[in-house]
């Protein structure tokens, strides 16, 4: 895949009000595909760490090129910004803002986007994407609302013991869930704000739990570390796997 400089990206900013979040609102950035037409309908990707996904993951640039080259179904991408100071509190299942963030996401953010843009509402056309703890919260949202979200892209998911416990105990029907998981083989001793973890082992354990529950994830281990330079390379294949032409 090569970038297509002749096709300009369209990115707009939005703000969603919230009764769940203490701040009362959350900023978003929205990628609209080439040839965007309000009378059509589009699959939608919701990205945790929205600013990072757009700036470091280059998801809008890469999707724009793939769509222009006929390799990806036209789609809308919603980047959900996060204050890094409260990121763990929102994304980790034992965080003190987690429950409120999950409810904001499913009960306020998604309905707002569905009112503003012609996005499809069937689970198979909705993808949650996240890196590290963003991958974790994406899966946890899908667990809590299995009838709403049908796909999860996890880039080196931070599946700490608390998250694995939630996954293990969940009685949600996950047989229809599609997962794309990747982790770098050099992520065996990664220092986080919750301590040192072997992300390879954590992702292997998450994969096994998912398989027990009937999920058949696309699972990739390759040389790499816990950085966007590694994850960025997975974005095109991941998008194509969920939304092929």
TrEMBL record:
UniProt superkingdom: Bacteria
Pfam family, one: Esterase
SUPFAM superfamilies, per the entry: alpha/beta-Hydrolases (SSF53474)
Gene3D superfamilies: alpha/beta hydrolase (3.40.50.1820)
Name of this chain's protein: Enterochelin esterase
Species per Swiss-Prot/TrEMBL record: Paenibacillus darwinianus
Lineage, opening ranks: Bacteria, Bacillati, Bacillota, Bacilli, Bacillales
């Amino acid at each position: 895949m090569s970038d297509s400089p002749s096709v300009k990206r369209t990115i707009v900013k939005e703000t969603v009000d919230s009764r769940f979040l203490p701040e009362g609102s959350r900023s978003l950035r929205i990628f609209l595909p080439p040839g965007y037409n309000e009378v059509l309908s589009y699959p939608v990707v919701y990205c945790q760490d929205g600013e990072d996904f757009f700036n470091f993951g280059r998801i809008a640039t890469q999707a724009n090129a793939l769509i222009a080259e006929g390799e990806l179904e036209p789609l809308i991408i919603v980047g959900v910004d996060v204050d890094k100071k409260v990121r763990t509190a929102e994304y980790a299942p034992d965080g003190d803002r987690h429950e409120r963030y999950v409810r904001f996401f499913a009960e306020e953010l998604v309905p707002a986007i569905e009112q503003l843009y012609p996005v499809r509402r069937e689970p198979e056309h909705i993808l949650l994407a996240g890196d590290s703890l963003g991958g974790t919260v994406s899966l946890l949202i899908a667990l809590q609302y299995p009838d709403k979200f049908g796909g999860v892209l996890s880039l080196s998911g931070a599946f700490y013991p608390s998250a694995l416990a939630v996954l293990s105990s969940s009685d949600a029907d996950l047989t229809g869930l599609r997962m794309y998981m990747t982790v770098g083989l050099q992520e065996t001793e990664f220092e986080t704000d919750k301590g040192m973890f072997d992300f390879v082992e954590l992702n292997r354990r998450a994969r096994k739990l998912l398989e027990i529950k009937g999920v058949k994830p696309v699972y990739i281990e390759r040389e790499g570390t816990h950085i966007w330079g590694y994850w960025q390379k997975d974005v095109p294949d991941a998008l194509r796997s969920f939304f092929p032409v």
